[in-house]
Amino acid sequence: MSKPSIYGLTVDQLAAWLAEHGHKKSRAQLVWEGLYRKRVTAFSEMPELKPECRTLLEEHFAIQTLEEHTRQESADGTIKFLFRLQDGNLIETVLMRHKFGLSVCVTTQVGCNIGCSFCASGLLSKSRDLTSGEIVEQVMKVQLFLDGRQNNERVSHIVVMGIGEPFDNFEHMSNFIRVIRDPKGLAIGPRHITVSTSGLVPKIREFADSDLGTNLAISLHAPNNDIRTRIMKINRAYPIEPLMEAIDYYLEKTNRRITLEYILLKDVNDQPEHAQELAELVGSRRNLANVNLIPYNPVDEHSQYQRSSKETITAFYDTLKKNNISVSVRLEHGTDIDAACGQLRSKQIQSDRARGAKANRAANE
Ligand code: SAH
Ligand code: SF4
């Protein structure tokens, strides 16, 4: 049996675990210091711990559970990492460079069951949730990679927008946030963390009631139920009306701004009348909502959707502006490597499958 990653525990959980196993709670701080400040990758590199304590930790936990499979670096500095989990599954993590700092996009599930029709991740259904340790370790792997380059660079922002639906893995996602925001650990402030959801209404409410305090983004993608149901089947379970009510609950409870993501699909949801309808939907929430327009990244050459033209994107943007809606267009990163989140992984799986099929054919000949 493989050991769980120690990165999955908050310092309090680690202290409680140590106490249960007959060790002083205060040792958790030493372990924490080793993991997140010195960033050691083996318990043997924590000489400040008593040998019995080190052995105990070694018996029950691993520090490194992800193995780098592939890394692609783009001309704009974006780096996509493909990691192999202990069970052999592949996941993707992306490092992006911005004016304001370095952000990491993390994966929360192996595949995704929400099945949005424009998304590479949704084409591969979920095989399992990631543990909080596996999510934290993605950030640590990227930080360790940066440490190795010796430029003194630090991951400053996190977007939970990789493969998977974070609110369908709520407990692990929450623990992940508690670990990385700890000021004595990675110290990534909740205002620097954005979680994106396809709109699981009860979980949006639970998130609003929680102490997590991160930014929230909602994948809205359509101005009405007809279009939303066509492109996101989750809209059957949680249509726009209850979704907007949950958003209002979040806004009222937290008094924070929210991002509404809107992927532009040619002739599907990108026409001036759609922009007008979206402006009306955002309506009274305009002071607390920012619409983020996302140019569609074709999933593969057989995609049923096409990217909207620059002119269409500009016209859509202008209509929202004219209606006093706060709007931005998402800058793209790493378009010369494998564009959308999930694409590197799905390509690798496709090529592994093709290789497997070829090997099978050869064996049968
Ligand atoms: N499951 C969550 C978070 C992961 S997806 C969610 O859906 O919000 C992160 C973002 O990438 C979402 O807004 C999603 O709609 C968008 N996305 C998915 N496929 C895309 C594609 N092919 N091109 C551009 N954006 C895409
Ligand atoms: Fe899942 Fe998000 Fe992709 Fe939809 S867009 S299939 S919810 S990862």
UniProtKB/TrEMBL annotation:
Binding residues annotated for [4Fe-4S] cluster, in chain numbering: 112, 116, 119
Cofactor note: Binds 1 [4Fe-4S] cluster. The cluster is coordinated with 3 cysteines and an exchangeable S-adenosyl-L-methionine.
Swiss-Prot/TrEMBL keywords: 4Fe-4S, Cytoplasm, Disulfide bond, Iron, Iron-sulfur, Metal-binding, Methyltransferase, rRNA processing, S-adenosyl-L-methionine, Transferase, tRNA processing
Top-rank taxon, per record: Bacteria
A biological process term (GO) from this entry: methylation
Keyword Isomerase appears in the UniProt entry: no
Transmembrane segments annotated in the record for this chain: none
Catalyzed reaction equations: adenosine(37) in tRNA + 2 reduced [2Fe-2S]-[ferredoxin] + 2 S-adenosyl-L-methionine = 2-methyladenosine(37) in tRNA + 5'-deoxyadenosine + L-methionine + 2 oxidized [2Fe-2S]-[ferredoxin] + S-adenosyl-L-homocysteine; adenosine(2503) in 23S rRNA + 2 reduced [2Fe-2S]-[ferredoxin] + 2 S-adenosyl-L-methionine = 2-methyladenosine(2503) in 23S rRNA + 5'-deoxyadenosine + L-methionine + 2 oxidized [2Fe-2S]-[ferredoxin] + S-adenosyl-L-homocysteine
EC number of this enzyme: 2.1.1.192
Active site annotation, chain numbering: 92 (proton acceptor), 341 (s-methylcysteine intermediate)
Classification via Pfam families: Radical_SAM, RlmN_N
Protein family according to the UniProt entry: Belongs to the radical SAM superfamily. RlmN family.
Further remark: Reaction proceeds by a ping-pong mechanism involving intermediate methylation of a conserved cysteine residue.
PANTHER family cross-referenced by the UniProt entry: 23S RRNA METHYLTRANSFERASE (PTHR30544), RADICAL SAM CORE DOMAIN-CONTAINING PROTEIN (PTHR30544:SF5)
Protein name: Probable dual-specificity RNA methyltransferase RlmN
Organism from which the protein derives: Paenibacillus cookii
Gene, per the UniProt record: rlmN_2
